[in-house]
Amino acid sequence: MGEYSPYLPSECLQEIFKYIDENDTKTLYSILLVNRLWCSNIVSILWRNPFKNQKEEKISYKILLTLLSYNPFTTTHTLSSTSTIDNNDDDKEQPIIKSFKESTILTRFDYPYFIKKLDLTNMLKMIFYLTEDKKKEEIKFKNLKKYNNSSSIFEKIWKIITSNSNIETLIINTIDCHKFSKYLEPFFKIPETKKCFSTLKSLTLKLKPQDSLILSELINCINDKIKDIELEISYKSTITCFDSDLIINLISSQKNLEKFHYKDDSGNLFIYPIILKLRDHSHSIKSLTLEQSCSIDVDLFSSFENFYNLQELSFKNFNFEGNHDLFSNIKFPKLKSLSFDDIKSRNQQYMAYVSEPIMNFIQNHSTNLNHLSMNVLDVIMKDTFKTISQCCSNLTSFSCATNDQNDMKFIYLIFKNNPYLKSIDLCIIFPIRNSILETFAREIPESINNITIGYSILGKVQVNTFLKELKCDKLKSFKFNWQNPKNVDIDKMAREISKDKGWIFKGCELKPTQYQRKYIIEWE
């Protein structure tokens, strides 16, 4: 018999590794250290998204040190203009792009080539932390000596990435990084940036009104093959208004959008022209989310009649005006996900109820629906829940809000009539007693993986009661608003209940939200 190799071939390893979550850096780093073969096959996954969100209290910048050691290119391109970036450690103007005459590769792999997802905001945060520690002399790295400030480090990193990477996903968030525009705008104008962004497939932008110039410059250097766009305009500004024509230009610059998610908190934009422009992509759009706190005439939705490939549709924060009958006549043959969240009707006929045409709309799509969210406040929901329980039988996730305890029996019917249900999210606005929680827990199907209870604030006794009454076989997560008393060990309690239930406990995390704290308990 012939000898067999003790190692799996690279093709097999890559097929296995692609199932690992790219955010599970602990596992990825462990694989990196097994041997050279495993290392060479996992490094591309580890570096696909190097600037991802970090949970650490202080952001790690080690990955920047690796990039700063990488110098594979030789170019003499120079941009003569200068930067006016405000740095605490150096007030002098710095050249935006310098000439590079470097050809030595000091790293083991061609790391920038692996980068496909670029979160520029997180990258800047890492650079700020690196610069801060450099000033404090808390870091000893000889390659840092030639960089005077965060501006020069950003310039170097940007040059390395744009000259050696083909970015597929770009994320820009100026809401969480107020200095962002000062760094970024000049770099959109260099040829390397346009080449690097020529392979873009997905774009996520979270901008303040005063940062519209970023979008303007970005439109000039992206390709026309982007499939997914997520755009959020936040923070009201009495000084600056975001130019809605830029959003129109962004939509116009693309040929076949498949996903468009739009959220406006600025209060300055008109959504009408955006909806009308989306008609140019009616043949390709599969996912559409529109969120804006404003009044809108239902007649405008006639623009969606030809969206035959639409699979996900979400409306949030709208006041629907005009004749609702249009909803009864629209049908999307492929619709699988539908959300009506924080929707109000200003039609006098339907002030106290979810309108009959909207219910007809749900019924028209009930056969294919996998996800349904009905977080509609200040209306009577009993008949709505009853109709959903009768017409929907293929839901895998369901979300709703209720301010009436009597609604619960119809919500339980929805659970019962949807055997494939895996995820439930209930915003319970009425006072929630232990007896209600006990009944709620017992009515939850065994197949449920994820549970969220919103609005109501739970204490230790309520959480303990709820978890003990659950019959779920494969619970993955439980999210709830926490009362946050001192000296209460939720972690210990969850471990003990998990042991009795046979659940494999993963961990607890307390996250601050706008008005309270949210606890997340997770299981394997």
TrEMBL record:
Protein name: F-box domain-containing protein
A Pfam family it matches: F-box-like
Transmembrane spans: none
Domain F-box: 7-52
Coiled coil ranges: none
